[in-house]
Amino acid sequence: MVHVYNCHPFASQQIVQVEQEPGLVCSGGGALFVVTTGGCKVEAYNLEKEGCPLICRFATMGTVRRIQHSTIGDYLVTIEEKNSATYLRVYTNWRFQAEEKARVGVRLLGHLLRGASVWGGVQMEIIEIPMSEHPVAVACCSVKGDLLVGCENTLVLFALRRHTQQNLKENQQELQSSWSNAEQSCSQSRGRTFSPNLELSVLDFERSVILHLSKINPKE
């Protein structure tokens, strides 16, 4: 006789009450992320507090088809569609939306923003990652936070990079003096709101490996 044992690997049996019908879900960093039906809004709920209260909600730039969370870097990566085009985007500093700050920065991969986002990530940033092929699947490394993207005929690995305040200052020395003065003024005003012992950094990615596949089409 064969005995079958049912295993239910649930850390808890909490019930998360959402306001709208959920479409996609993922979790990480003590939070549950719910993409509402329609795919253009993400809601984050705190799984570490009783009742799983809402942390924040924010709109996406397109309809979310895939979503993953990386514990390293605490970022969200999405595959989105808009006007029949497919986009790969990374959302960083999303927790700052809990303070009801409407400021959101949008930039391309490798192009750091000036101003508030440079000094400690005080606003949510959306990083656009251009791809030569349509992305179909994403995965995040649980050790380094690197991002692996599966396309129709390639696998592309993006290494996670952290730019500290010191590195950013060195890069900004090449900018015009007018921008430098503006950044110094911004850093002084923002510096009063953060602990001096906190090492501030900005996340970015660097394309490191491209693996071409001849007879394999990645799905997950």
Automatic annotation (TrEMBL):
Q: Which Pfam families match?
A: HPS3_N (PF14761)
Q: Where is the BLOC-2 complex member HPS3 N-terminal domain?
A: 3-166
PANTHER family xref list: BLOC-2 COMPLEX MEMBER HPS3, HERMANSKY-PUDLAK SYNDROME 3 PROTEIN
**Protein name (Swiss-Prot/TrEMBL):** BLOC-2 complex member HPS3 N-terminal domain-containing protein
Which species is listed as the source?
Answer: Ataeniobius toweri
